[in-house]
């Protein structure tokens, strides 16, 4: 069985993330969307909230399981018996950072490959940080995130 890990903070999960997860299911038998606990970023939503939002967003994709994790990604990948890590590339600007991560992960776990996927063209510009900022400024985030995520963002920024 080919298992892949698709990691991220998913703060919040976007339609771009959902698209990449769906694409990964065409390549792997099982895809674990791994919601990262620790981050250098200050997440808007808790780990539990981000995990639940991802579960709901990906409910209709039977090959996908959503799990929170902390610590080294390669350790989590080994625990889950994954052979690959899926990473998204939206633009050239993502490439430098992602290739550095892939090189470090390869050094730590040479048996785990990193696979880069790009989202659908109409979703390539969406990022969680842009969605958070748009929501903070009371902009319309529909079309960028699933409806339940839009509702959660509206609740957070209701004042």
TrEMBL record:
Its cofactor is Mg(2+). Gene3D superfamilies: HUPs. One of its GO terms (biological process) is coenzyme A biosynthetic process. It catalyses: (R)-4'-phosphopantetheine + ATP + H(+) = 3'-dephospho-CoA + diphosphate. InterPro entries: Cyt_trans-like, PPAT, Rossmann-like_a/b/a_fold. It is an enzyme of class 2 (transferase). The keyword Zinc does not apply. The keyword Cytoplasm applies. Pathway: Cofactor biosynthesis; coenzyme A biosynthesis; CoA from (R)-pantothenate: step 4/5. Substrate binds at residues 9, 41, 73, 87. ATP binds at residues 9-10, 17, 88-90, 98, 123-129. GO terms for cellular component: cytoplasm. It is found in: Cytoplasm. Residues 5-133 form the Cytidyltransferase-like domain. It holds the Pfam family CTP_transf_like. Its EC number is 2.7.7.3. GO terms for molecular function: ATP binding; pantetheine-phosphate adenylyltransferase activity. Its main location: cytoplasm. The record marks 17 as: Transition state stabilizer. Keywords: ATP-binding, Coenzyme A biosynthesis, Cytoplasm, Magnesium, Nucleotide-binding, Nucleotidyltransferase, Transferase. NCBIfam families: coaD_prev_kdtB (TIGR01510), cyt_tran_rel (TIGR00125). Reversibly transfers an adenylyl group from ATP to 4'-phosphopantetheine, yielding dephospho-CoA (dPCoA) and pyrophosphate. Homohexamer. Belongs to the bacterial CoaD family. This is Phosphopantetheine adenylyltransferase. It comes from Halothiobacillus diazotrophicus.
